[in-house]
Amino acid sequence: MKTKEFSQHSILNTQSFSRRYPAEWEKQRATWLSWPHNEKEWGKDRIEGSDSKGIREFFEELIIKILRFQDVNLVFANEGLLNATEKKYPSIFHNTKFKCKKIIIPNNDIWIRDYGPFFLEAMDGKDKKSLILDFEFNAWGEKFPPWNLDNDFPKQLALYSGSAIESYPIVMEGGSLEFSGDGIIMTTEQCLLNKNRNPKLNKEQIESILKSTFNIEEIIWLKRGLEGDHTDGHIDDVARFADPRKVLICKSNNKHDGNYKHLNESIQYLKGWKNSKTGDKLEVIELPMPDRMEIKDERLPNSYANFIFVNGGVIVPTFNCPSDKVALNIFKKLFPDKEIVDINCSLLIEEGGGLHCMSKQEPLI
Asked: For the whole prediction, is pTM greater than 0.85?
């Protein structure tokens, strides 16, 4: 589990075998979640739900919905938290078809998409195996300390699972990259070129690193993410692959909205994009923006794009507004062979994240 010293040359020569990051709609082994415990971020009432539904009650509801489709790997920061959860929320541990597995790995917060590992499929000769890629995590540009336990999480998970791991001393968050499953990454310049991440790397160097480490050929760069996004423009709030040649993207119809101009520019860019090697184009499906949400006069990045795939289903965030029904109908039409399940994420977005941000899929390899 040796961490490689970074240079462009060393990154380009780390591929001892071929690898691929499976698309999220492919068969999954489990969904990873990290049970909430950070009172600094959530507040005690929001964690415990003393007067209203708290974050743990939201987790209980989400886990039960995921367990209809597949296993959940549920991470606890310590044994005491695990024991208390078993007593208070027994329903999530007594599913007859799929299992909620309890795992103790220290962590700082719930956003496992960003600090968790990238699970890759790797071929070593004729043998297929799982490979974990581990990047540095600095809490979205050192905004929300502490992050030391989250940064160490992929290494601890590799020790727990016995998986092979490659570690790279560059900052890269899971929500900043979107994968087609067949050689394309989609991302934003606002995030990956932000000086609070990797100030010594330019766009060409970052492209080289991504193409080598993930074994991909094309990168689609959108300009920016949603207004109010503390992550500096994560792609998973803006645009997502629905299959290798279909992209869902948020659209604003309000010319006075801060997202209107750049989202419509991104839509036109994607409609005109062509694969430089194959000439393939993309089918672009537009998602409505939910009603504007604010907390303490600060805009929140609520988005229907922050959905998750499970085996045989798609779980879609809703926000108790009229556009929820419109968005759900789009998903039902786009995925006729999958069950579309909604869950109200109005509480979750108060801390700036969504379903995709707080979960991580592990492919079946």
From this structure: yes
